[in-house]
Design brief:
The complex is a heterotrimer of chains A (323), B (339) and C (629). Chain A is 73% helix and 0% strand. Chain A is built from 14 helices and no strands. Chain B is α/β, with parallel strands linked by helices. In chain B, 35% of the residues lie in helices and 22% in strands. Classes of the chains: A mainly alpha (323), B alpha/beta (339), C alpha+beta (629).
Chain lengths: 323, 339, 629
């Protein structure tokens, strides 16, 4: 296990390295225009372009530029997303400060939505699988189809329009100036975002749980369990779900980690100042250090979640052992 | 004769599908006496597994149209409510399956899985159930059963897993053990060990055993009675001697000819003759005798008239239009001579 | 280019809006909105100061409020209305009400100009104090010099517009580190600033209405005063002079080293802006800003449609940088109770097609003229949404910069502005590329011409219309669409040899023709500067270096320089003359529409005024109805 962890950690750093390199290339090498030019005003002078170039370190050799960013990859205090390099072009704030300042919003959004989608998705999946082909199953799968295919952007706008603008059941989007995340949660300002964000996932999880459970219920060991004379409830919940939910745990870990890197659309539409909104703004502003920082931050979470999920798997599935 | 342990009367199990009705079991009747070993032989798709899963209550009237009676110790299992059926299943009738690799739950310890069966039917503490599980593992010949009980199925070899399955099945001292292809997935040497184990345990636990197999060779030394199934029907039934030394049905002959003999197979491969053709669709069963398209002795009547299961004597019956004389002649000339 | 994008985003508002409207309220509405400084609201109610404006911005300002870096009209409105006073400023009204005319602000009057046009003298008012934490400090001429020194520093001005100030003697030398002071700036006393130019430039006064010249307060011995040590982030420590300041400005502490100072609480980058009244502001020194509301809350971020719903629901008063969605525009233009809340004003921007004068077949003026004649400008406008998006453009500079001298001028006027194929073919017949003179270009140069455009709507439809218009002239195009930034980069890159750009637009920086002349047509505005896509005035060497076969192109450098030396009414005439020269003798463009700005305000807003300088609502003029405060 120890060696495995070391290997996986090294692998994680490699992944971050590759992610950062790709991001770097996309933002620095591929654009048709010089990033310095993009940063200066529309009318400008050659001196200004040169000044921007210098300010962003673009006058140094490419490998030096990348190396500066690469140092910020090392998950170590003082190095990880260090302020010397990971400093926003756009609003002159350290990227780390922005990300960590916004993390509570993203956490509130992600955790609330995750709770909701598990509470909705898993029971729906179980009911559909157990009552296969029943009216419940068909209803649930129509829900899943809508949930999976409805664009989040559209859903978000629709929910806001119906539940806030028309019916006035829910508070409007955004967190009022001076309101803490906790207060905003208590004011119900996360209810619509949670609903919107969880719907897609709930639909996806319902389908996954249903599929997994139906598949599991056809396994030989389920027949064995029934042959033992166990009640159907016990067969489903102790024998069926145990196996059916294990892949869900993996999925869940990655989904949650992905959301910590930002629920881009939901945060944008509902104007929740989270990491995702920051990422969108950074891309829109072509604020390279921010884009790089938020990408690495997201990739770091996903890589970490991957590792945790794999370790968790070893506990969930006795057949899996790491050496 | 004492009351039979199990009496199946004209059992039909039909599955409605989009393509038509699958007549997996189409009217079978037989009895099993306490302490008896019955062999049920047939190719896959002959309805043998379905029939016994129905006996176990694992195929229910929600899934299939079930007709006839399954009398177990005088009670009809077909009409028995699910709750009651569960007290029979596992405790009085238990079952082991073909593939021990997949029949144990991969996420639970072997000992716990056995203990779970015990605790389902007996009011005992976890600890007592665990001890019983260890004891059962010991009795099925698993070395260091204490340690083994705390291991997961993937840490067991195939034969060991089948022993564990048997331990689980016998842990409640059932009156009837149904073994569905118990050795098919195992090595030849392990097969023999498992069958011997079944024999021994049958004596020890005084249980009746039904061995379901596609291989007549497997049941040769272990069964008192044998019934051969084809296309959802019993085509021949008799005691062991009847089937091996005086088989009356061309299908049984085919099965006999396809038994591999360890000693001769290597020398004379020609003797191993597989049955021509494929088993019939259970939706569109051939007219007349279901076996007629594959039968080397087919004649006009076979194609039009369904043969009855006619007894030749008190313990031997077959479902074939050939005259008794022809059956005996062909058996001795073509089957015995070559095997 | 990032700032440019945002400026353009505002301009593009109109484009998107347009889709729904097609209405005819365009020009008429403009007049109706300008109730300006009349002292009564749109509803006729008496204006009562008080209340807090609730606003939203889709995106943050472009450089965190750093006055030397902000090259974004939205930020300019924050500065003008609220935060920063400058020597000169504007009234916060539309052009028709003098909104494009310079007014004295910190200065007592407009500058005195020497007869040779090289020396400008400003006199400062006394008693103009800073906001917190320098409430007891008065603005001096040295503070203006400080701002200009910071402007000259290329690192502090990244992304800014300091090149406009190169006309001040010694400005460039100081910026390059070759001089200790800017030699063209003199402060004989605290209330006098004398500026010497290296060449006469009539636009100089406009530069002193830009935030880059807003005074920076002194702080001990620090050369840059309060901005010392804040090369990147002075905006987050901004000391106000206007009627408002950032909330929490009183907590700014400039006595500790810069890296230990805490930024002002009222600006949370990317999230929120909170402005409160500046307690040290003396309205007696300011005749420009009524400053009715007590404060402003601006939340950054959100979805455009949702934000406009919030205006209808009364949650918001304005969306600063939004695009009025077509259904909302429809509602506001048809419902008589809402019509007063819809504001349409010219935004002083032009949309055009630009020709590369060094690329065949556009090196031939007849081809360029024929293009102008064949273009269905009305059709182009319809694709953008109809008449409300703006006026058909008959020339290059927006009319307000020329005092409307060319308001009715269109050398390529066609019936209903729909294009005139006969006239166009007659023009084409004179081209060397039309060898048989039948009015249809038959040279290989005319087919499959590379054309670059914007991939966003409605440009693809516009390119299709252009292709349809030009096909009878024998001009066929190979249209390539790009994301907007890339499109501009391609058009601006001489070595890419793009013959024609279909989707550029340009808005003014300040209300003077110079911002439409030099950056668009001066030879100095060729790459790596911007935005002379036509290569007007390019030297033979430059053309050769970039692989052009044509080595001679027209130039307007002399005319631009000459016009820039004019002042007063002669200056308007000079820009008009330049415009006519460009339109008739050079023909670098086919302009097709002068854009409008479309905005809606909430029910409780009274006394809406459009600030022509920034092209946005003038937040110092708007007031909140007393019952809604």
């Amino acid at each position: 296990m120890g060696r495995y962890l070391i290997r996986r950690t090294l692998f994680m750093i490699l992944v971050l390295f590759i992610v950062s390199l790709i991001t770097f290339i996309i933002f620095v090498k591929l654009p048709a225009a010089d990033p310095a030019r993009r940063a200066v005003g529309r009318a400008t002078s050659p001196e200004n372009v040169e000044a921007a170039r210098h300010a962003f370190g673009l006058d140094r050799p490419l490998y030096v530029q990348y190396a500066r960013f690469a140092k910020g990859l090392v998950p170590w205090p003082g190095l990880f997303l260090n302020e010397d390099v990971y400093f926003s072009y756009a609003n002159f704030v350290p990227v780390k400060e922005e990300i960590f300042g916004r993390l509570p919003v993203t956490l509130a959004l992600a955790i609330g939505a995750a709770t909701l989608w598990l509470l909705i998705g898993i029971p729906i999946g179980i009911i559909s699988a157990v009552r296969r082909r029943s009216i419940w199953d068909r209803g649930a799968m129509i829900f899943a189809l809508i949930g999976v295919s409805a664009p989040v952007f559209w859903l978000a706008y629709l929910f806001l329009y119906i539940f806030w603008f028309k019916l006035e059941w829910a508070p409007p989007s955004g967190i009022p100036i001076g309101t803490s995340v906790m207060e905003a949660v208590l004011q119900g300002r996360f209810i619509l975002p949670w609903m919107v964000l969880s719907l897609t996932f709930a639909a996806f999880y319902a389908r996954m749980v249903r599929g997994n459970l139906i598949e599991t219920m056809g396994e030989d060991y389920i027949r064995t369990a029934r042959a033992k004379g166990l009640s159907e409830k016990r067969v489903i919940y102790r024998h069926g779900l145990r196996a059916a939910l294990t892949p869900v745990v993996t999925m869940f870990g990655l989904d949650l980690a992905g959301l910590l890197g930002g629920a881009f659309i939901t945060e944008t539409v509902f104007n929740l100042p989270g990491v995702g909104q920051y990422a969108v703004n950074a891309i829109f502003n072509q604020d390279f250090p921010s884009v790089m920082g938020v990408t690495i931050f997201g990739a770091f979470f996903i890589a970490l979640a991957n590792l945790l999920v794999d370790v968790a798997y070893a506990f969930l599935d006795p057949r899996v052992r790491y050496t | 004769m004492a009351e039979p342990l199990l009496e199946v009367k004209d059992l039909k199990v039909h599955f409605p599908t989009d393509d038509g009705i699958v007549k997996a079991v189409d009217g079978i009747s037989f009895t099993v006496q306490p302490g008896e070993t019955l062999g049920v032989v047939g190719e896959s798709g002959s309805g043998k597994s379905v029939g016994f899963l129905t006996v176990m209550g694992l195929i229910t009237r929600q899934q299939a149209q079930i007709e006839g009676e399954i009398l177990f110790q005088g009670q009809d299992l077909v009409t028995m409510p699910g709750d009651e059926m569960r007290t029979v299943r596992g405790e009085k009738i238990s079952m082991i399956f073909q593939d021990p690799m997949t029949s144990l739950h991969p996420y639970y310890k072997v000992g716990d899985q056995i203990a779970e069966a015990v605790r389902t039917h007996q009011k005992v503490s976890k600890r007592e159930a665990h001890e019983q599980a260890v004891e059962m593992l010991r009795r099925v010949g698993i070395p260091r059963p204490d340690d083994r009980a705390d291991q997961y199925p993937h840490e067991f070899s195939g034969g060991m897993r089948q022993r564990a399955m048997i331990a689980m099945a016998l842990s409640l001292n059932p009156d009837l053990l149904i073994a569905d292809e118990p050795t098919t997935a195992l090595d030849v040497t392990v097969q023999a060990q498992i069958l011997d184990l079944l024999d021994r345990l049958k004596e020890e636990f005084n249980a009746a055993v039904i061995i379901i197999t596609h291989d007549l060779g497997v049941v040769a030394e272990h069964c008192d009675h044998i019934q051969v199934m084809y296309a959802g029907k019993i085509v021949e039934a008799g005691d062991r001697r009847d089937i091996y030394y005086n088989a009356h049905h061309p299908y049984t002959w085919g099965l006999l000819r396809s038994i591999p003999r360890l000693d001769e197979a290597a020398v004379d491969k020609e003797r191993l003759v597989p049955i021509q053709g494929l088993p019939p669709s259970l939706i569109f069963v051939p007219q007349g005798c279901a076996f007629n398209p594959r039968c080397p002795h087919v004649f006009e009547r076979c194609r039009t008239e369904v043969p009855e299961l006619l007894p030749a004597d008190g313990h031997h019956a077959s479902r074939c239009h050939l005259s008794l004389a022809d059956k005996e002649r062909i058996f001795h000339e073509e089957v015995m001579a070559r095997t | 280019m990032r700032r440019y994008l945002k400026v353009l985003a505002l301009v593009a508002i109109l484009g998107l809006v347009a889709a729904a409207c097609g209405g005819d309220e365009g020009g008429e509405e403009t007049g109706a909105t300008g109730t300006g400084a009349s002292g009564t609201g749109a509803t006729g109610a008496e204006i009562q100061p008080g209340g807090t404006l609730e606003m939203a911005m889709l995106g943050d300002v472009s450089a965190a409020f750093d006055p030397q870096k902000e090259y974004y009209s939205v930020t300019w409105e924050y500065y003008r209305c609220c935060l920063l006073r400058t020597l000169l400023s504007y009234t916060g009204t539309p052009t028709a009400e003098g909104g494009a005319d310079l007014q004295p602000d910190i200065a007592t009057d407009l500058p005195e100009v020497s007869s040779d046009g090289l020396t400008y003298t400003f006199t400062l008012k006394s008693g103009v104090n800073y906001g917190d934490p320098f409430g007891d400090v008065s603005v001096t001429s040295g503070d203006i010099v400080r701002a200009l020194e910071r402007t000259a520093d290329p690192d502090a001005s990244v992304g800014g517009y300091n090149f406009y100030y190169n006309i001040i003697e010694g400005f460039e030398d100081f910026g390059a580190g070759d001089a200790d002071t800017i030699s063209g700036l003199e402060t004989p006393d605290d209330s006098t600033l004398i500026i010497t130019l290296s060449s006469a430039s009539g636009y100089l006064p406009y530069l002193f209405a830009m935030a880059a010249t807003a005074p920076i307060p002194p702080n001990g011995d620090a050369r840059l005063g309060a901005a010392e040590g804040h090369t990147e982030d002075y905006g987050r420590f901004l000391v106000a002079t206007g009627p408002y300041q950032f909330a929490g400005a009183e907590n700014l502490d400039f006595s500790v080293p810069a890296d230990e100072q805490t930024p002002v609480a009222g600006y949370d980058p990317g999230r929120a802006i909170t402005l409160v009244r500046n307690p040290n502001y003396d309205p007696a020194t300011d005749g420009l800003r009524p400053a009715y509301v007590d404060g402003m809350n601006i939340a950054i971020g959100g979805d455009n449609n949702d934000l406009y719903n919030k205006i209808q629901a009364g949650e918001l008063d304005f969306v600063v940088d939004g695009i009025v969605p077509p259904p909302v525009l429809r509602t506001y233009s048809t419902d008589p109770t809402l019509t007063p809340l819809l504001h349409i004003n010219p935004s002083d921007a032009v949309r055009y097609v630009s020709f590369n004068l060094a690329m065949p077949p556009f090196d031939d003026i007849h081809v360029r003229k024929a293009f102008n004649l064949a273009l269905d400008k009305a059709g182009m406008r319809t694709l953008r949404g109809g008449e409300s998006v703006g006026e058909i453009a008959g020339h290059i500079m927006v009319n307000s910069l020329q005092d409307n001298i060319l308001a009715d001028y269109d050398p390529y006027e066609t019936p209903n502005s729909a294009g005139d194929l006969t006239a166009a073919q007659a023009e084409m017949a004179q081209s060397v590329y039309d060898t048989d003179g039948d009015g249809v270009c038959d040279a290989p140069e005319c087919s499959n011409i590379l054309a670059v455009t914007d991939e966003a709507d409605p440009y693809p439809d516009q390119s299709a219309l252009i292709q349809q218009n030009m096909e009878p002239l024998g001009l066929t195009f190979n249209v390539r669409s790009f994301e907007r930034t890339t499109m501009y980069a391609k058009c601006n890159q001489p070595s890419d040899q793009v013959p024609i750009c279909l989707a550029p637009a340009w808005g003014k920086d300040f209300p003077d023709g110079y911002t439409f002349a030099d950056p668009l047509f001066g030879s100095a505005a060729i790459f790596p500067s911007c935005c002379n896509y036509q290569l007007l005035g390019a030297s033979p060497e430059l053309l050769e270096e970039n692989g052009y076969e044509i080595t001679e192109v027209p130039t307007a450098d002399e005319e631009i320089t000459a016009a820039n030396q004019q002042t007063g009414d002669a200056r308007f005439q000079a820009w008009a003359d330049l415009d006519v020269l460009l339109m008739e003798e050079i023909v670098p463009w086919a302009p097709y529409v002068f854009d409008n700005n479309v905005d809606v305000s909430s029910q409780r807003i009274v006394n809406y005024s459009f600030d022509q300088f920034a092209g946005l609502a003038a937040w110092d003029h708007v007031a909140i109805a007393p019952e809604a405060q």
